[in-house]
Amino acid sequence: MDLHIDGVTLVYPDGEQTLTAVDDVTLHVPSGETTALLGPSGSGKSSLLAVAGGLTRPTSGTVTFGDGEPVFTPTTPPDDATRVRLTRIGFVFQQPQLVPSLTALEQLELLSHLRGRKPAERRARALELLDAVGLAPWAHKRPGTLSGGQRQRVAIARALVGEPDVLLVDEPTSALDHERGTEIIELVTSLAREQDAAMLLVTHDESTLGSVHRLVHLRDGRLV
Ligand SMILES: Nc1ncnc2c1ncn2[C@@H]1O[C@H](COP(=O)(O)OP(=O)(O)OP(=O)(O)O)[C@@H](O)[C@H]1O
């Protein structure tokens, strides 16, 4: 489903003053495509992703999926935002943020459970995705015995397990070497395309971006 960010501004309180982290950004990511968001440190990339994912309410502007009503606005109640996050958005963060005591398979099954899937469906879907990210042989391993790249693959599979409309990915390769980083970006872009999810990817590293559809640059909170 398409992701529409329309006229989004995010202002943080900053002592006596305010700081405009995102300044009137309008961005459209078509279903099945990946847009990479580049820009120097502090330019507002993570802030824009937080608004797109309903983690932070915009000060003004809206976020809409497909041609429905806006899902995130300055007045969206927190419970509504939580429900949209759980059912329609997949997140991949810089650190995989896996549960240490759960196996790769269980990490995915837990999320499916939270999304209300039936047990038999959960297992089949989790195994299918672990296979898609090349981790079928590691399905019963816990995060402590996986490599950094393998852990990030589990996080990608987990983000996709609920068939999200929108996939939001923040610097997924910062803990990996260049070759692993390129592989991870290619993998997540191709899975998003297969599932018809609109994907917004934040990164510093332009050299890993051969597989994305569009690059946009942010500077001082504005698209340039
Ligand atoms: N919770 C917050 N409260 C106040 N100011 C914030 C908050 N989060 C971020 N900022 C400020 O907003 C601006 C944009 O930060 P943001 O983290 O979005 O940038 P970024 O482009 O993602 O940076 P990086 O590449 O270093 O992660 C910065 O000036 C930052 O200091």
From TrEMBL:
Single GO term (MF): ATP binding
Biological source species: Sediminihabitans luteus
Keyword presence, NAD: no
Positions of the ABC transporter domain: 3-224
InterPro entries: AAA+_ATPase (IPR003593), ABC_transporter-like_ATP-bd (IPR003439), ABC_transporter-like_CS (IPR017871), ABC_transpr_LolD-like (IPR015854), MacB-like_ATP-bd (IPR017911), P-loop_NTPase (IPR027417)
Region Disordered, annotated ranges: 59-78
Protein name according to UniProt: Putative ABC transport system ATP-binding protein
Annotated keywords: ATP-binding, Nucleotide-binding, Transport
GO cellular-component term (any): plasma membrane
